[in-house]
Design brief:
Layout (H helix, E strand, L loop, with lengths): L6 H13 L29 E3 L2 H6 L2 H13 L1 H29 L5 H28 L1 H15 L2 H12 L3 E3 L14 H11 L14 H14 L26
Parallel strand pairs: 1-2
Helix pairs in contact: 3-6, 4-5, 7-8
């Protein structure tokens, strides 16, 4: 068991223990003291405080685990294509690397140094191009992972609130904010149970054209910045001076 190294908590527990010691009752006609009542053991768990690993609460949900099992089957064509492209890329680059290493064994001259730089640049360009191709092939897989995670995360707040209410927790901390703790403070499993109840399974394949939340928010922010601002209202024209009422006297 991990112990909470908190001076305030230790002082509170000590105060409870001291106040629980019974006073000795003496009889009027007997010098013998009455038996001392057994003190109730002080609890070492502070009620209302808990710790939860929210990242683990996501990966331990049924929806996440089932999606991890289904994804290799659903996206097998993409995985196979990416594997084949990776093998072809390795077969294409290996001879280039062998020639590069063989050339390095020679006497280093300006011409050889230029040749090595050219070969290294060609290898790097080919590797980068192949990496981008594989990422493009596996893009549906990446979108599936983001889609499942977003469905689970949408239920996070609700699951946390339900777990806190059932366990009567008013303060929830992250593990990184605590130096040490007892296992009784961990609320992660309760959050997982609530999230499983809220979302037993997640949809694996996102709908056509779906984008992760980060991209949607970035597009919305960009659109808001590019939206034309309403033109300022034109200033009203100055009012003409009022004409005096009644006939004016003629000048001499």
């Amino acid at each position: 068991m991990k112990l909470i190294r908190n001076s305030a908590l230790v002082a509170a527990i000590s105060l409870v223990a001291l106040s629980a010691q019974p006073a000795l009752a003496q009889k009027k006609n007997d010098k013998e003291a009455a038996p001392v009542a057994a003190a109730a053991p002080a609890s070492n768990v502070v009620q209302g405080i808990a710790v939860a690993n929210l990242q683990a609460a996501v990966s331990n949900t049924d929806a996440f685990r089932v999606a991890q099992q289904q994804r290799p089957v659903t996206y097998k064509p993409q995985f196979d294509q990416a594997q084949a492209r990776g093998n072809a890329l390795e077969a294409q680059i290996k001879p280039m690397i062998d020639r590069f290493n063989a050339a390095r064994q020679g006497t280093m001259t300006p011409a050889l140094q230029t040749q090595l730089q050219t070969q290294a640049r060609a290898i790097q360009d080919l590797q980068e191009k192949g990496k981008q191709e594989i990422q493009q092939i596996l893009l549906p897989v990446a979108l599936s992972e983001a889609f499942v995670n977003e469905q689970i995360e949408e239920k996070l707040d609700q699951a946390v609130q339900k777990a806190m209410e059932k366990s009567r927790v008013s303060l929830l901390l992250q593990p990184g904010a605590v130096l040490a703790r007892a296992n009784a403070y961990d609320l992660t499993n309760e959050i997982v149970a609530e999230r499983n109840a809220l979302l037993p399974t997640a949809q694996l394949v996102p709908p056509q054209g779906w984008e992760p939340r980060e991209i949607r928010e970035a597009r919305a922010q960009q659109a808001a910045q590019q939206a034309p601002r309403p033109a300022a209202a034109a200033a009203p024209a100055p009012a003409a001076p009022a004409k005096p009422a009644g006939p004016q006297p003629e000048g001499r």
